[in-house]
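Protocol step 4 of 5: obtain the predicted structure for the target chain.
Materials: sequence only (see below). No template structures provided, no constraints applied. The aim of this step is simply to have a reference model before the mutagenesis design in step 5. Sequence pasted as it appears in the construct record:
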Amino acid sequence: MARAGLTAERVTVAGAELADEAGFDQVTMSQVARRLGVKDASLYTHVRSLEDLRGRIALLAADEKTIRIAEATAGLAGRDALVAFAHAWREYAHQHPGRYTATQTPIPIDPELAARASGPRRAVELTYGMLRGYGLTEPDLTDAVRLLRSTFHGFVALEAAGGFAHARSPQHSWLRALDALHTLLEHWPAPREGDPS
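Step 4 output (C-alpha cells):
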C-alpha cells in the first residue's frame, strides 16, 4: 500500500530537490524513495519509471522558470525586457541547478503530461514576444531565439562548471554580453543571399 499523502506531485518535488542537491544525473528511484521514507515499489503507484519521473521534473522546472521570467519581464520592452529575462534565467539556474539541467536535457515526456504543462509553451511565447519588441519577424525570430538560448545556457553552464577562471568577474562579462546582445538585436543583420525563409 502506498504511503498516505504520497502523490505524483510529491514524488516529483522530492526528485527535483534531490536533483538540486546532488545533480540531475544522480536522481534515481531508490534515492527518491529513501528521501520520502518509502520503499521503491511505492513510487511506481505514482510515476511509471525513472524516465517518467525525470520528465515530470523537467516540466516542473520549466513551469517554475517560466513563471519567474514572466514576472520579471511584465510590462517591460526592449533592453529592459532582455536584461530582466536574462537575469531571471541565470538566477533560476544558480538557485536550482539540478532542475535547470532537467530543462536543458532531451527527455521523452508523456504526451498527456506535456499537453497539460504550460511552462514550455509559455516560455516560447515569452521569448518570441520579447524579440518582436525588437521588430524581428521570421525567420529572424527563430535565429534570435536560438542565439539567446545558446548565450544564456552557454554562460550559465560554463559558470557552473567553473569555466571562468580569469580574474575579471563573470558578472561583468555577463552584463557586457547582455549589452552586446541588445546592440545586435537592435541592428539585426539583413538575410544572407539565398537564405530560406
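Step 4 remarks: The mean pLDDT is 93. The longest helix spans residues 50-73.
Proceed to step 5.
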